[in-house]
Amino acid sequence: MFRLALPLPLTLLQLRHGWRCALEGLAVTSLLLVALMGPIRGPLVLFPYGLLALWLGWGWRHRLSWWITLPVGALIGAFGFLVRLAVLSVLLGENLWVLITTAASQLLERFTDALGLGVGLDLAQVQGAALALVLVQNLLVVFCLHAVAYWIFPRLQAPISEPPPVLQALVSLDPL
């Protein structure tokens, strides 16, 4: 829920008051999180939530198509996930990406052996699949951000661009 709650207020701030006010809001948010949660959480809100909020606010203010804001937002989210993972790896002194993908590779190997499939996956394939899953997950999160903003922002006098006709049925509030 926080992944949906964090970017939307900053995006609304940018839609209503402009770029400078959104940057000030992002700075205040980061400083408050530094004061309340420590020196690590404050800067980590920048990646991906702050950058995503600024991107969505800019894209929606300029009425960009969802076909542009969705994939770029997913890339920003995936980049933010990798930045967070790198920071945690430095703090822990372990490469968490390698640990996670090695454990996933071993789990998949046990699973395929139990089913008698005999398919062997190497670590590079597992890492590629993990990156693809991170991108898909962030694409879904950014789509949910678009849908929530499409439903709520017009009531707050900050409408966003219309969804493409293909996605209109997914974000429509009318009963089917």
Word description of this protein:
With 176 residues, the chain is mostly helical. It has one domain (2-171). The protein is 78% helix and 0% strand. The protein has helices at 2-5, 7-17, 19-37, 41-44, 46-61, 66-92, 96-115, 123-152, 165-171. Helix 2 (7-17) runs antiparallel to helix 3, helix 3 runs antiparallel to helix 5 (46-61) and helix 5 (46-61) packs antiparallel against helix 6. The longest helix is centred in the C-terminal third of the chain and has 30 residues, at 123-152. The protein is flat, with a radius of gyration of 19 Å. It starts with a helix and ends in a 5-residue tail after the last helix. The model has no long low-confidence stretch (mean pLDDT 88).
Summarize the structure.
The chain has helices at about 1-5, 5-15, 20-35, 40-45, 45-60, 65-90, 95-115, 125-150, 165-170. The chain is built from nine helices and no strands.
Name some characteristics of this structure.
176 residues; mainly alpha; flat
Write the layout of secondary structure elements.
Elements: H1 2-5, H2 7-17, H3 19-37, H4 41-44, H5 46-61, H6 66-92, H7 96-115, H8 123-152, H9 165-171
**Number of helical segments with 4 or more residues:** 9
Detail the poorly predicted runs. none
Helicity, as a percent range: over 70%
Number of strands: 0
| Overall pLDDT level | 88
Q: Give helix and strand order, one letter per element, not per position.
A: HHHHHHHHH
Taking all Cα atoms into account, the compactness measure Rg is: 19 Å
Number of domains: 1
Strand content: under 5%
Structural class: mainly alpha
Which shape, going by the Cα principal axes?
flat
- How far apart are the termini? 26 Å
| Assembly status | single chain
**Largest β-sheet summary:** none
